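Running this now, will post back.
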Amino acid sequence: MNRKMKYSLLALVVCFLGCQDFLEPKSQSEYVPKVVQSLDELLLGDAYHSPVSITSNMLYSALGLFDDDVAARPDMTIVEESENSFNQAQLAFSWSKDMFTKLSGFGDAYASSYRLIMGCNAVLDYLDDVTGTIEEKSDVKAQALALRSFYYFHLVNLYGKPYSADKNAPGIPLKLTSRLSTDAMPRSSVGKVYEQIVGDLLEAERLLKTLPWEAQVRKNKRVNLPFIQLLLSRVYLYMENWQEAMKYAETVINDYDYMIKDLNTVKEPDRNSNPSYPNYYDWNNSEIIFMLGDLSDIINLAITSVTAIVTEGTETFKKSTIVCVASDDLINCYDSDDLRKTRYLVWESVTSKQSGPKYRIPTSKLKVGIDYNFNTGWGDDWGIAFKITEAYLNAAEAAAMVCKTEGDAVCQKKALQWLDKLREKRFPSGTYTDLTMAKVGNLVEFVRAERRRELCFEHHRWFDLRRYGMEKLKHVWYDRNHNVIEYVLEKNDPGFTLLLPASAFENNQALVQNEIRGE
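Update: finished.
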């Protein structure tokens, strides 16, 4: 019998416990794995977040409309049957305190993350009791630790305050075993969660370094060494440990063969082509280090559509319309000749009744079909990419901060060089000139603006705004009658940290809710 079939019961039990009540006591599956290969298969089914999986995992369903890269579309007259979808988008766009009870799918990120963490924990719990070589066990353990670290990093940045703001603030429960317990589990501090993440990633790095080089740098949809080191760079950046962030980013840049994609080789979008925009999240892309997730999760909330009445010329008709679009603030932050403005920012879908696209939509770099339509099916389309471009930006930001705090001229030079390496592939061939401090001005601000331009709609921006200091943020909404409504997050507003979903409290009475913002 195929081992995947033999593990279906265990997988379902793990998923059920992780999704609904990971702290509620229940009997575990009687099946006990005997060989390390079985744990390797369990990893694939219950720890990797991929487009095709037994259980649908949604890590980003609560994100997509929070940051300043999105704006509300001002010209819609929606029909009554679309009001629910319209209201759902408004809840997220306004950072409503009612999201955790009224926004569909709001708790998915919490439940899905713990479900995947439970899969990692099950593998780690069984590892000492199965047969296999030291090398095989090291590989499986490294994968489980790295994946668990990413899921905890995602959770703590959704539901805990930024590390730089208050590392002693409540974070999330740290569940480090698949064993069931009758004890309720309180939230560990943000600092404690980060400590666990870093420790697990360093151990995963150590274990993978004991494997042959081919396994360390594999490109077979499995955790690899450069992914772990890139994630370490990101984690240290959030912790404001600039030296370690720069060290690990440099390692990813220098030790491997990943290359920045030259956008001069990417054709301008054509609505009649399929695809109209290229799929940058492809294993053949020289920038890709590792991928997780699926397209549906990423665009589920971001491109919420409603049926609206539109007028074009002398004709009035109903059409499916995206509620939110790319903000003018984002679009205008690109230089006029920056290729990313046309290669990354996707036009809204068009119909035969339209003469052409009108708005950019709030997503980027994913597969886009004819007439700029997204394929929203499950399929094989990935949603989360870890790329070499982030390593350049992490290194540049860390170096810029060292320059700012210590006056280090060497780091200033490094930051400019890393920016140049990236930017020269983002402008027409032969036109780019290297940056100078006279041109850049405030180096830290420039790096962060470049990060926004390069990583737009890759779910970095909201987390970046949090760690930059949670400055005042304003969104403008247009109701069904086209009235303007302003929503504001004040500096250090509680709304920068999401409320724990109501479902999290059902079986864990030790939880304490985050501060609820006023409206």
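The longest strand covers residues 305-312. More later if anyone needs it.
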